[in-house]
Design brief:
- The structure is a single chain.
- Helix content is 36%, strand content 23%.
- It is α/β, with parallel strands linked by helices.
């Protein structure tokens, strides 16, 4: 079973969403014309590929987890987006096509760096090709005091796992000493509302607190999250502030 197999049913429904205006802002920032070829690496259920589909000419999603490919296919059909979906790893990706845009969302820390960089160098269009490292997260503000206790419960259940430090790999650090360099960063902030059930589902969508990881303790895990969040609920919901970011990389001149 792949690392994300047990997260599939939760990932698309509960992960922090990318606001629609995020795609618009990125498209303007990097000057998309609508005829580009885009590859979404580690596409999961297709959030980025579907979001950018209307701004480019063609979209391809690549993911090594068959369940994620199936989820992306379903989501793309529901959204009316045309995606080519490939079950595979970027490190072993054999293609002669050049891509103008490569998006990587919440996945660069899982990739084998050396072979991935070699493939990116081979497939990214010369000169104008761009790599976007994208992520979304809830941020703690005076209006969202629940974020810290929520993270504390998740961290306690994920503690001691050797991959934990991987999550903190900065994109610029990951590309250091390669043929790619940072050329920009953009972000969009959106205020929304979530429920305790949403945030339990979100926790279960993460590989280090997935149903497979928490296993027989899932009921206790969910109860601890609910207890930590309960003091902050107002009229059945919690206020959330989502920040979506894209770090933009291109070839060194």
């Amino acid at each position: 079973m792949g690392r994300f197999a047990s997260t599939v049913e939760f990932y698309a429904r509960y992960r922090e969403p990318y606001p629609p205006k995020f795609y618009q802002k990125v498209a303007e920032e990097i000057g998309l014309h609508g005829d580009e070829a885009l590859l979404d690496v580690g596409c999961g259920p297709g959030m980025l590929a579907i979001g950018f589909a209307s701004f480019v000419g063609s979209c391809t999603g690549l993911d090594p987890e068959p369940g994620m490919i199936a989820a992306a296919r379903s989501a793309a059909a529901e959204a009316g987006a045309a995606l080519l979906l490939i079950d595979g790893r970027i490190e072993e990706f054999q293609t002669s096509q050049a891509y103008d845009i490569v998006t990587i969302g919440r996945a660069h820390h899982w990739l084998e760096r050396t072979p991935t960089l070699a493939v990116l160098d081979r497939i990214l269009a010369p000169d104008s090709g761009r790599i976007l490292i994208c992520r979304t997260s809830s941020v703690e503000t005076p209006e969202t005091p629940w974020v810290k206790p929520y993270r504390k419960v998740r961290s306690a259940w994920a503690s001691g796992r050797p991959e934990k430090k991987q999550y903190r790999v900065n994109p610029s650090e990951w590309f250091a000493d390669s043929c790619f360099s940072a050329i920009g960063e953009t972000s969009v902030t959106e205020r929304s509302q979530v429920t305790i059930a949403d945030l339990i589902g979100r926790a279960l969508s993460r590989s280090n607190t997935s149903p497979e990881v928490v296993a027989g303790g899932q009921e206790k895990f969910e109860a601890e999250i609910a207890a930590a969040l309960a003091p902050f609920v107002r009229d059945g919901v919690l206020v959330e502030q989502i920040v979506a970011r894209a770090s933009i990389f291109g070839r060194l001149p």
